[in-house]
Structure formats: C-alpha cells, structure tokens
TrEMBL record:
Keyword Nucleotide-binding on entry: yes
GO cellular component, one term: membrane
Transmembrane segments: 61-91, 126-146
Keywords: ATP-binding, Kinase, Membrane, Nucleotide-binding, Phosphoprotein, Transferase, Transmembrane, Transmembrane helix, Two-component regulatory system
UniProt protein name: histidine kinase
Domain of life: Bacteria
InterPro entries in alphabetical order: DUF7134 (IPR055558), HATPase_C_sf (IPR036890), HATPase_dom (IPR003594), Sensor_HK_TwoCompSys (IPR050482), Sig_transdc_His_kin_sub3_dim/P (IPR011712)
Residue ranges of domain Signal transduction histidine kinase subgroup 3 dimerisation and phosphoacceptor in the record: 178-241
One Pfam family this sequence matches: HisKA_3
GO terms for MF: ATP binding; phosphorelay sensor kinase activity; protein dimerization activity
C-alpha cells in the first residue's frame, strides 16, 4: 500500500473516531437537545465511510457526504460532527477536478455547513458561519493549489521527456551528419588516390621492361600517393576516436587539406598522366577551414573523374575571386571513355559535391559543355572573408 493511501486511511479513521466521540458527549446532547441514537450513529458512519474511497470517486463521494450530512442535520443531531467530513470531501474535489467543477462542489459544501448553523442563535450563528466559511475556503484553496502543483509537475515531466527526446534526436542527427561527412571524405580519399595508384600501376607494368626509369617514376608516384592516402585515412580515423577525446586523451590528426594543397594535388594528377592547367583571377583571401576543404574536395573529385573517364585526360582548373564569392571551375576537353550514363560511383561523387556546396550556402553544377567535354562549376559565398 502506498504512503498516500495509508495516509488517507489514517486521516479518515481519525475523523471518524473524533466524530463518534464528539457525538456521544454530553455537550452535544445539551447543545441540540437531541441525544444521539442508532439513526444518528448510522448517519455518522454514512458521512465518513465513503471518504475511504474519496480519491476514486470525488464527486459522487461529495454528493453522498452532503446528502448524509443534510439528513443528519435535519434530524437535529449535533452540527459540528459534519464539518470536517464535508471539508475533506470538498478538498478532494478541488484536488482532483478543475475549477469549473470544484467551485460548484465547494458551494454545495458551504451550503450544507451554513445549514448546520441553523441550530445556533444570534452571534453564535454568525460566528459559526464565519468559521465554517473559513474552513471551506482553506480546504478548497489547499486542494486547488495541490492540483495545480501536480499538473505543473506533470507538465514539467512531459517537457523534460520532450527535451530528452529532442536532445537524443539532435545527437542522432549529429552522428548521422558526421557519418555522411566521413563517408564523403572516405569516398574522396579512396576514389582519388586509388585512381592515381591504378593509373600509375598500369603504366609501370606496361613500361617495366622497355623503360625502367618511367616505371620507377610510376612507383614513386604510387608510394607518395599511398602515403598521402594513409595520412588522410589516419586523420579521418582520428575524428572517430571520440571516446579517447572524452577520456581526456588529445586527438592527434593532421589538419584537413585546403587551398594550400591544391598545387600538390595538381602535380599528383599530372604525374598520373593527365594534362592539367590552372588559373587564378582576383585577389585570393584566406578561407575558413570548412570552405577551403570544400573547394579542395570538389577539385579533387573533378580531377579524379577526369582521370577515370576523359580521353585524353586533359583538364583546366580556374579560381575566380570576387568580393562576395569564389567561383571554381574544372573543365576537361576530352570525350568520355563510355558514352553511357555515369556509374553509381560518379553519381555518388556528384551528390557529395553538391551536398558540400549546399552546406556552405553555395551551388554546384556539373554537366557536358556545348563545345565538348565536361564542366564542374562551384560557387561559394565568402562574405566578409572576401575583400578582394
């Protein structure tokens, strides 16, 4: 049995015992001139026994108590016996029901207790009316405040649960976004570096006997590309070491590639057998790491597609700096190796580039050029970062 139920039983039992004792006193009989009899005892029980289940049926219990009290008072028994039973019934209605229900219930209880004062005369009746009015107001006020506190507690618990769910959802979204970001990074790293390695490995095998020097150069490119790929893979894996960082261990990984790495990227693509030219227009400015990484990855993905799909692999990279934007164009003049629709890998790469651009408020278009070849155009807003 819960403590609240036990407290209710104790309270009602105490009220019943007090009422029985009070009704049997000589003062009660002398005040009303009507001694207590079997009917009176039965009505006292009828007044109090329903209160044991008052929290289950608040309104019916109030009506039952009010009815029993009215009959008890009409028969002329001692009036003070009914006061606290009626007050407790009113408290219960106020505690469990809204004001549109509890206020009429309180008025009903008040009317019953005022009716109880009819046995008194003059100043005693006035004083008794004031006392029972005060008792009813206190009972109703405590019940109504208790109800409001409980409702606030429920609302607070609901809002807390909603906040917990929203925080959990935001955490899931953050994890999902991080997974997509890492997937893009892995795609860019693997697709580009493996394409270079594949091209150089094929070249080295082809000229191994006829031109050992070219074969050694190809192996050097493969080694350098593999080393760079491993470095970037380590950086990505370091990002995943969340538990180590939370445990207080420093996260050690290289900075993400940016515009300063573009010349090295172009050299590596040239070493893989592609012809690449570059052009910069306007005054370059320093970009935030995220924007710089976006530019680098778009150029990297575009040149990787040139290596894999364009014949001959020829490309031009141009960066146009404006006051509020940066435009990056990667064009090739070769025909596609296969005229059919792009593979899933290429399509995934284009989707990844567009998503990168969208994250930073930019746009990316990719498609064949009227004069032949293919063009990828990235436009990024640089705002206060661009002043040239």
């Amino acid at each position: 049995m819960r403590w609240r139920q036990l407290a209710d039983v104790v309270l009602v039992s105490w009220l019943l015992a007090a009422a029985l004792l009070l009704a049997g006193t000589d003062v009660a009989a002398a005040t009303t001139g009507v001694p207590i009899d079997a009917a009176g005892w039965a009505l006292i029980l009828a007044l109090h026994l329903p209160l044991y289940v008052r929290t289950w049926f608040p309104l019916p219990i109030l009506l039952a108590v009010a009815t029993a009290a009215t009959v008890y008072l009409t028969l002329g028994y001692y009036h003070s016996v009914v006061t606290f039973a009626v007050a407790l019934a009113v408290f219960t209605v106020a505690e469990t029901r809204p004001r549109r229900t509890s206020v009429p219930g309180a008025l009903l209880g008040w009317a019953v207790l005022l009716y109880a004062q009819r046995a008194l005369d003059g100043d005693e009746r006035l004083f008794g009316s004031v006392v029972v009015t005060f008792i009813l107001l206190v009972a109703w006020g405590f019940g109504d405040n208790w109800r409001q506190l409980r409702e606030r507690g429920r609302r607070l618990a609901y809002l807390t649960e909603q906040l917990r769910r929203e925080q959990q959802e935001r955490a899931h979204q953050a994890v999902s976004q991080e997974q997509r970001r890492i997937a893009r990074e892995l795609h860019d790293v693997v697709a580009h570096h493996m394409s270079v390695i594949s091209v150089q490995a094929g070249l080295g095998r082809y000229v191994l006997d006829a031109d050992p020097q070219t074969a050694r150069t190809a192996l050097d490119v493969i080694a350098g590309t593999a080393h760079e790929a491993l470095s970037e893979m380590r950086r990505l894996l370091a990002v995943l070491r969340v538990s180590s960082v939370e445990a207080g261990e420093p996260a050690q990984f290289d900075a993400a590639p940016g515009l300063d790495r573009l010349p090295h990227l172009l050299d590596r693509v040239r070493a893989a057998g592609a012809t690449v030219t570059s052009h910069t227009e306007g005054e370059p400015v320093t970009l935030p790491p995220g924007l710089a990484l976006c530019v680098y990855r778009v150029v990297q993905e575009s040149l990787t597609n040139v290596l894999k799909h364009a014949v001959p692999p020829e490309a031009a990279v141009s960066l146009t700096w404006r006051a509020q934007s940066l435009e990056v164009r990667v064009t090739d003049r070769g025909a596609p190796r296969r005229p059919e629709s792009p593979s899933d890998v290429v399509r995934h790469g284009l989707i990844g580039m567009r998503e990168r651009a969208r994250i930073y408020g930019g746009t990316l278009s990719a498609g064949p050029r009227p004069q032949g070849g293919f063009e990828v155009r990235l436009t990024l807003p640089i705002g206060e970062h661009g002043d040239g």
